[in-house]
User: What shape does this take?
Amino acid sequence: MNVVKRTDEAPGEHIVCDSCEKDAVIVQRDFGIGRNEYWGNKSVHVDYRNCCSECVDEVC
Ligand SMILES: [Zn+2]
Assistant: This one.
């Protein structure tokens, strides 16, 4: 039986942050620019990234 080790963090997961060294929970923040329109093409740009709940730095 193979055990697949998960390497990517998920929102709500507990971590020790590299930046602030606190016990934190992963939260997702939207770094996208939101609604935009380019030559009549409307789109919503979203860019969710995993961040620390304590210092709000991005978790890599
Ligand atoms: Zn942190």
Observations:
- The mean pLDDT is 89.
- The longest strand covers residues 23-30.
- The pocket of zinc ion is lined by residues 17, 19-20, 22, 24, 52, 54-55, 57 (CB under 6 Å).
